[in-house]
Amino acid sequence: MSELHLSRRSLLSGVAAAAATGGLGALAQTFASGRGTSASNHVLVLLELRGGNDGLNTLAPIHDPAYRQARPTLALGDDAIALTDGLALHPALASLEPLWRRGRLGFALGVGWSHPNRSHFKAADQWAVGDPSGEGAGWLARAYNVRTQAGPLVALHATGCAAMEGGSPLALQLGTAQLQGRLSLMPNRLAMDASPVLRQMIALESAGAREIERLRGALAPPPVGLNLPPGDLSRQVKLALRLLGSGQCPPVLALAQGGYDTHSNQKRRHQRVLKNLAHALTGLDAGLRAMKQRPQMTLLAVSEFGRRLRENGSGGTDHGSASVAFLMGDRIPSRLLGTYPSLQNLDERGDLRPTQSPEQLYRHVLAMG
Predict the structure, then answer these.
(1) pLDDT-derived band of residue 309, with 50, 70 and 90 as boundaries?
(2) What is the mean pLDDT of residues 12-24?
(3) What pTM did the predictor assign?
(4) Residue 208, SS3?
(5) Distance in angstroms (rounded) separating the CA atoms of residues 35 and 367
(6) Which phi and psi angles does 141 have, rounded to 5°?
(7) Average pLDDT in the 69-95 region?
(8) C-alpha neighbours within 13 Å on the C-beta side of residue 145
């Protein structure tokens, strides 16, 4: 149809969303009772750490004997960055310590579902929806259904973001193809005349194309002196900064980074992916500080599950349960949100028991916006 990326799920659910006026659930009600239902000077950035980030080595209980006993080769060493309450950052995240000291970085502890599905696909659906069923509209789509002038919700990663799909606000994808390509629609007029559903789908995609053109035309130049390493996440951060500086930034931006499925050789692989993450987050913060005028921003970085406490025989860790989430920016609810799971009181599968659900975390974040 066109170079605009509206997923099939977005198109089909968007057709039905106009009729869905009730049943938004607790997430939407939390948002509606927060800072109002009109557009605010605040942008929420969702960063998905795909593959199942090992929270235990991201923010480690460095003095817990059970941690070192379960991870004889993977436990963090003396180069870990001590923060507070016996918790230490992975050394690859050392560049984030100044953000912690300035109150611009925090962590949500023990986030996950009890007995989560260990399939990446099902777990990702559970987090996207904010419900263990993994079924229904995304949590961001539901929350922003209650806002006026709420859209669009924009994904900057090539695979989009399921958390923003299924609601009435447009869920768009903005990337290299959309920045460089020509957006046009060549609908089959006979097919449109014959199918009311197709007419509405074409209308949705046309509206999306207009929004993409508007955003593309408003993009600000990258902040002066922005220093980001090569890579896909850096490209997304650079584009996010251009939107944040445009004066017309959408209320939600979604980014994604892969590489967190560390079943083997975790020490090297986790080091590399966390270092890239730290560069991206420090670059984002530096870019924001260089702007004279911008909206306030809160970033939430989550992963579909954590890893097992015990390392495996391949120098890695397998799919587990609770993990940590990153909070960064102007409106973080707390530097440490929640409590760290007990390493002595595991569930019957050997997993950490979550101390807060993804839905509870989402409520905290939405209340800040």
Answers:
(1) very high
(2) 40
(3) 0.88
(4) helix
(5) 7
(6) -60, -45
(7) 96
(8) 29
